[in-house]
């Protein structure tokens, strides 16, 4: 609440306990879906197969290892006034998991020269950001394994 608005303002970035509970298996275990009819795998989970339009899907746990297909480094400014603080890299990558599924994820705790196409990566759980209600949102990131 604020002094100007007495009612609580709904924010799209506020953590929802219900939504977090429903998405926990995908966020923490990389669980998607597999079509029982055509065998197509999907991440994140879906209710309809994008290959054959079947609704006959089952939960499927993807492997936590894969290879980097493409990487992009974006330098993010920190500090009170953006541009006057330290610049930190945010490394977004396209990762092909060992079962063939492709996901977009960040690479953390890795030296920048090691992040190249074809490098082997493994999933780890990390803090993603702090919500407006002071709770931490956790999720997956990847690290390069030697």
Automatic annotation (TrEMBL):
Q: Domain named ChsH2 rubredoxin-like zinc ribbon: which ranges?
A: 29-58
The residues forming a coiled coil are none
Q: Which Pfam families match?
A: zf-ChsH2 (PF12172)
The record's section on InterPro entries has:
ChsH2_Znr, NA-bd_OB-fold, Thioester_dehydratase-like
Q: Which PANTHER family match?
A: BLR3430 PROTEIN (PTHR34075:SF5)
Task: Output this protein's name.
Answer: Zinc ribbon domain-containing protein
